[in-house]
Amino acid sequence: MALITDINPRNSTYWLLVTGTATLLIIPLIAYLLSLSKAAATQKKRSPPSPPGLPMIGHIHHVGKVVPVSFQALAQRYGPLLSLRLGFSTCVLASDADVAQQIMKTHELNFSSRPPFGSPEHSIYPPGSGFAMVPYGDYWRFLRKLSTSRLLSVPQLRRFADVADDERLGLLRSLASCAQEEARRPCDLGSELMKLTNNTICRMAMSTRCSGREKDATKIQEIVKTVLQLAVELSLGDALGPFGKVLEYFAGKGKKLFGALSNFDELLERILKEHEEKLLLTVADGKTTAAPARKDVVDILLEIYNDPIAPIRLSKTDIKSFLLDIFIGGTVTTSSAMQWAMGELINHPNVLKKLRHEINEVVGSNRLVRESDVQNLPYLRAVICETLRLHPSSPMIMRECAEDCEINGFLIKAKTRVLLNHYAIMRDPKSWENPNEFFPERFLERLEEKNRNFGYIPFGMGRRACPGVSLAMMVMPTVVGALVQYFDWEINEGKLDLTVGSGAGAEMAHALVCYPVLRINPFDSSG
Ligand code: HEM
Q: Is residue 101 part of a domain?
């Protein structure tokens, strides 16, 4: 009763009640109307266009043998941003510099994760471990910082510069012996380069050669090759859905992948144990420092594993999974780029001659080209840049959209997989003149500008960009430079066949078989 008598327009309580009730009713109403208009706007926004599809398989029939090339053809015909349905999975295909810039810069944070890849039942490590496929968050940020500031940092790589030099000399020695044989013997330069990259990364990461187990590096090379090949085949199986699963079951590919990963795990377990024992021995010796004189990647990771106050507690599974990603991300990519560089140089004798002239002028012929020379060898750098443009080692990369966003006026829904076709982007005539021509001179001018507009992204861009770029750029120019400095390269006849191989990796279809001819013997006077 007292309440009713208090409700009087001249009373302040009355106005409080009125405005309070109005606020309570109006705010949800406004929110509701806003959500309706937002939903309507979202509905109005269209998904990116699609090429003609077929029932069930969607756009699988558009996927050619060389995947990045067939996707480039799709973009040329239907546009730089496309929705594709590949069997039971969907993705958005991005194929020019402008779209890449929106994904990797304008909406960078929104595209900082990668979608889950492959079935968890084929992996022995849980999805949250590793590096390359880990979702953006605290754990990934920790590993990223650790990689750039310690594991793959320039000072750490310089500490292992002798390892890179030693492996390079090993390569030159092997090629020289091939060249010096009386009967002309061809050499498979591709597999020599793969051995070099694999050994260099193995020694920097876990000092395998130093511990006297030379075969470990070879085993890792075989495992990485198998894992890469099977993972690609199985992901295709996943895209095909139930049909893929049946095929895959008969082929037993999942089992094989699991087997290869188990071998890797066993080998890594032993290597971790050896590192831990080495650490314990140093402590038992009573030396002032328990740490090895030069810490490799495993030493540093174990240090964090043993650190009770590390911001993120790494498990041994995390360490093994991280190492697997480093091998998968670093070995084939770097060796494939050097193969392409040598293939292009052999097929372009004028470029090779110009490069050799530059090296002769700057370094001379009495010593091997060194890492510190590279800054004074612009044409060598241009050859490497042009190789990575024409033959990106990671021609297609995956990102995932965290929240709904708009690109080129099209709606990209949360959780959409986005496939960036680096191959198409770096051969786009909008960004490059005569894009399919090997022409290193283009990098002597306006490199900065090209870099800025996202037409040149061999190592990706933004926070998810390649953390191994310093290692790759330390190895590639010095190896290619030495191969040009010390050898002439002969082939059977005509030109090398530089056809791009089938699959998603855009590697060379044919082995890089050639005849090295010694110009100067590197073992007489190498510096
Ligand atoms: C020519 C050599 C190489 C090329 C062209 C290359 C290219 C790339 C590209 C395009 C990406 C994806 C970037 C993005 O999403 O924006 C990537 C990621 C990655 N690369 Fe490399 N890479 C090379 C060498 C290496 C090396 C030597 C290592 C390590 C030893 C390495 C380790 C990784 C890792 C771990 C990732 C995943 C990073 C993440 O997701 O946060 N790569 N690389």
A: yes
Residue in 137, 140, 78, 101 with CA at minimum distance from that of residue 425: 101
Q: What pLDDT, on the 0 to 100 scale, is given for residue 43?
A: 55
Q: Residue 460, Cα to own-chain centre: how many angstroms?
A: 8
Average pLDDT over residues 157-173: 95
Residue 77, domain member (yes or no): yes
50 within ligand 1 shell (Cβ under 6 A): no
Number of other residues whose CB lies within 10 A of the CB of residue 413: 14
Does residue 465 line the site of ligand 1, with CB under 6 A? yes
- What does the alpha-carbon distance between residue 31 and residue 28 come to, in Å, rounded to a whole number? 5
Determine the structural domain holding residue 501 and report its residue range. Answer: 65-518
Burial bucket for residue 245 (CB in 10 Å: 0-12, 13-18, 19+):
middle
ipTM over 0.95: yes
Instruction: Name the residue of 144, 167, 333, 461 to mutate for ligand 1: max ligand atoms within 8 A of Cβ.
Output: 333
pLDDT of residue 279: 79
Q: How many domains does the chain have?
A: 1
Q: Tell me the pLDDT tens digit for each residue of 321-368.
A: 999 999 999 999 999 999 999 999 999 999 999 999 999 999 998 999
Q: Reduced to 3 states, what is the DSSP secondary structure of residue 412?
A: strand
Provide the pLDDT for residue 4. Answer: 43
Kindly state the helix (H) or strand (E) to which residue 410 belongs, with its residue range: strand 410-412
Angle, in degrees to the nearest 10, between helices 316-347 and 378-390: 110
Best residue among 138, 296, 466 to mutate for probing ligand 1's pocket (most ligand atoms within 8 Å of CB) is 466
Domain assignment present for 129: yes
**pLDDT confidence of residue 3:** 43
Quick: pLDDT tens for 267-293.
999 999 999 988 777 655 555 455 567
In a domain, 42, yes or no: no
CATH code for position 505: 1.10.630.10
Which residues are CB-neighbours of 29 under 8 A, at least 6 positions away? none
Q: Is residue 306 exposed (0-12), middle (13-18) or buried (19+ Cβ within 10 Å)? A: exposed
DSSP string of 240-264, one letter each residue: TTHHHHHHHHHHTHHHHHHHHHHHH
pLDDT in tens, 294-331: 899 999 999 999 999 999 999 999 999 999 999 999 99
| Residue 405, annotated as binding a ligand | no
For the entire predicted model, the pTM comes to 0.88
